[in-house]
Design a protein that fits this description.
With 746 residues, this protein is an alpha+beta fold. The chain is globular and about 90 Å long. The chain folds into 4 domains: 30-176, no CATH class; 188-244, no CATH class; 254-546, Peptidase S8/S53 domain (Rossmann fold, 3-Layer(aba) Sandwich); 550-734, no CATH class.
Length: 746
């Protein structure tokens, strides 16, 4: 086995040199005067509606597109004034999510902007009728000569405005107002669109008075059924998202108590601490010295003995899981736990738990890895991230922490043959979401499925969570028990993450990438429903299988920070044999982007696009997955749906890989013998949320003839300016022990 290598060097930074050209119509597109007339009528109706209401000073306009639209194809002529239309976006969703999705993007604009758009479309319609007989094709429009010949001063219009209106019309089906479908029988967490008015003031204007403690942030508030009904009657268009506050916890699929046993365990020393947020912990169990427990449940809530079962069982896996379950001994040892009881086994308030989690993380900065095995029985919404998940994503963007979250279970009353979407907070994008498999590697019968927002790969990975005939053994207050559920798969992944981060000393980006890379292997399926149930694959049991690789593989990790559009290094010295590169390659990229829940389905603000491969004689990179998204040539154009499907555009985990062939051949060696890596940074919104974002990449080179070339690679890396460290378990353990020794001065 070879150790995984850690390469430390400098990534260069380069700003984007590309400038957008003139707007173009897609191939085989025709824009007709009736298209513009229909959009004009929509805008007139919107103006009449918003003139008749006095609740907000501006207007909410929903733009219904005819496809999943790329940022470059969002409207640029309509709803633009002194600022771009992109800067006025306050939400987005999909029509027909799960079948053939199409974007619906919501803007908040002044009434004057609608007036201006009405005037613009009238002028564009006049030009289209007078100069093009009411119809213009992509061939006529894109060649430019016909457009250039027009005297736009005669129409008091500009060429660019005309071009933008025509191109916008080819992407937009209609304009309208989104009215949400909301159940109002229970307390609900409501998010309002940003209309530049304080939400508390806005609700007061509607006759709804709420306390400051009912606000989760500036736009999200907890409302009871009476107040929610008032809001829906007077101004339903203000509601961007709504979810029920009460969530039913379904912690496990099966629990079978066994005889109580008093296991032996040494006293804790300086082991890493994993944070657990769960139901209560019973300090009468044999490993209680390893757990620092905190009860955060309100004193007026009655507590029963069963409220200690789930949380105690989860912590028992983190502390002593390998000893209780020898078949799942991961080689990670034991971990201490700081346990926060925030819920009972019955229904709980999501709103209260969110507030508790924010308080917990703020007061426990020393913990890097957190386990959260609580989840909702309700399915996640197809058009927005849950409030719970959004808070977790924000915490992970702002702090050097990572959450491991159970993928949630079907309950025993559910028809096990019918698929059920995962429940919150398993829709958290930055977290690692863990589903369960049985001992044969098949999805557990109680597994619920992703994906999230019709696109994001959730769960991330899967692990052994117990199944009939091979349950997970845990310690509960009454003694040893056998259980199954995603709740008991997640703690095993938390153990591995803490080992990689707290003991080995890796960043959370690299640790997450290593887990996903190890789970995926070389042949991981990307097809539905495989990826919806198992994510990127099953994480290996032994930690050595994650931080070591077979002798015919060279696996190395690199880290960097994106500061400009292109973050690159072109000095990876892949070994050569017989004037060929005798390798196939794969790479896994992970990063933790800032997210915007109010943007709906367009949730992640920053896209990191990875390119890795040989440098040809022209200095261009031949990326191993033939990725050409950032090459500014017409024949490389990709529809947004294909960019997301093929290259995981906007996903914060990217896996690129060459296929393993029966008789692989070596690759051509160019004059420049180095390989390169380039990380392109793109922003969804009109701000630089990606500046300073950290990323981690795991690269694997597999020798096609089975030869071990790691020493040659290390030697060449040193000559090329890289600092190479072996991730050696024994050495890292020694360093960890020395760093955490208590020194007593005489």
């Amino acid at each position: 086995m070879n150790d995984v290598l850690q390469l430390k060097g400098t990534f260069e930074q380069k700003s984007s040199t590309g400038r957008p050209g003139a707007p173009k119509l897609a191939a085989n597109t025709i824009v007709k005067s009736e298209d513009l007339s229909n959009l004009h009528a929509d805008l007139v109706n919107l103006l009449q509606f918003w003139n008749s209401q006095e609740i907000i000073t501006g207007s909410l306009v929903s733009v219904y597109y005819n496809k999943v639209v790329a940022k470059s194809n969002r409207i640029n002529g309509f709803l633009s004034s002194s600022v771009s239309a992109n800067s006025s976006i306050v939400g987005s969703k999909f029509s027909n999510p799960g079948t053939k999705p199409k974007h619906i993007i919501i803007h908040y604009v002044p009434l004057a902007t609608i007036h201006s758009s009405i005037d613009s479309v009238k002028k564009a319609l006049r030009i289209l009728n007078e100069k093009f007989d009411g119809s213009i094709s992509d061939k006529v429009f894109n060649e430019g000569e016909s457009v250039e010949s027009i005297n736009f001063n005669h129409y008091s219009f500009t060429k660019s405005k005309f071009q933008n209106i025509i191109v916008d019309s080819s992407h937009v089906e209609r304009f309208g107002i989104e009215i949400p479908s909301v159940e109002s029988e229970k307390n609900s967490i409501i998010t309002l669109y940003n209309t530049n008015v304080d939400a508390k003031k806005l609700l007061k204007q509607l006759g709804i008075r709420v306390q400051d403690t009912s606000f989760l942030n500036d736009s999200t508030v907890l409302l009871d059924p009476v107040d929610l009904n008032v809001l829906l009657q007077k101004a339903p268009y203000l509601v961007a998202m709504a979810t029920e506050d009460l969530s039913e916890l379904v912690p496990s699929d099966f629990v079978e108590p066994l005889e109580a046993q008093q296991a032996l365990i040494p006293k804790p020393q300086n082991e890493p601490i994993i944070g657990v947020i769960d139901t209560l912990f019973d300090d009468r169990v044999y490993f209680s010295e390893w757990v620092e427990a905190h009860n955060m449940i309100a004193k007026d809530i009655p507590i029963e003995q069963r409220d200690y079962h789930h949380g105690t069982a989860v912590s028992s896996i983190i502390v002593d899981g390998a000893n209780i379950n020898p078949n799942l001994d991961d080689g990670c040892g034991r971990f201490r736990v700081r346990h926060f009881g925030v819920a009972t086994r019955k229904a709980f308030s999501s709103f209260s738990i969110i507030r508790s989690i924010k308080e917990i993380i703020a007061g426990n900065r020393d913990i890097r890895v957190w386990n959260l095995s609580l989840g909702s029985n309700e399915e996640v919404n197809r058009n927005f991230i849950s409030a719970e998940a959004a808070v977790l994503d924000q915490i992970q963007f702002e702090n050097d922490v990572i959450f491991v979250i159970a993928g949630t279970n079907k309950n025993s009353q559910d028809d096990q043959s019918i698929s059920k979407r995962i429940g919150s907070p398993a829709d958290s994008i930055n977290s690692i979401i863990v589903n369960s498999v049985d001992s044969q590697g098949n999805p557990a019968t109680y597994s619920r499925q992703g994906i999230v927002l019709s696109f994001f790969t959730k769960p991330d990975v899967c692990y052994y969570g117990g199944s009939p005939g091979r349950y997970i053994k845990v310690c509960m207050p009454q003694g040893e028990a056998q259980v199954s559920g995603t709740s008991y798969a997640a703690p095993w992944i938390a153990r591995k993450l803490s080992y990689l981060i707290d003991i080995i000393g890796l960043s959370k980006e690299i640790a997450k990438a290593l887990l996903i890379d190890a789970a995926a292997g070389w042949e991981a399926s990307t097809d539905f429903p495989d990826i919806a149930l198992k994510g990127h694959g099953i994480v290996p049991i032994r930690i050595e299988e994650i931080i070591q690789s077979p002798s015919d593989e060279i696996k190395f990790v690199v880290s960097g920070i994106s500061e400009k559009y292109d973050t690159y290094n072109y000095s990876f010295p892949v070994p050569i044999s017989d004037n060929k590169y005798p390798f196939i390659a794969k790479a896994t990229l992970c990063y933790f982007p800032k997210c915007s829940r109010n943007q709906g389905v367009d949730y992640t603000n920053t896209e990191l696009d990875i390119y890795f491969g040989r440098l040809d004689d022209k200095g261009s990179m031949k990326s191993i997955n033939d990725n050409k998204q950032s090459i500014p040539e017409k024949d490389h154009y990709l529809f947004e749906e294909n960019a997301r499907r093929l290259f995981r555009k906007w996903d914060n985990v990217k896996r690129i890989s060459e296929k393993v062939k029966q008789q692989p051949q070596g690759k051509k060696v160019y004059e420049n013998r180095m390989w390169g890596m380039s990380i392109k940074t793109k922003e969804r919104l009109s701000r630089r949320d990606g500046d300073g974002i950290h990323f981690g990449v795991v690269v694997t080179l597999k020798e096609i003839r089975g030869v071990n070339r790691i020493e040659d690679f290390i030697h060449q890396c040193s000559l090329s300016g890289w600092l190479v460290n072996r991730i050696n378990v024994e050495n890292r353990l020694d360093i960890y022990q020395i760093a955490n020794e208590e020194i007593t001065f005489d």
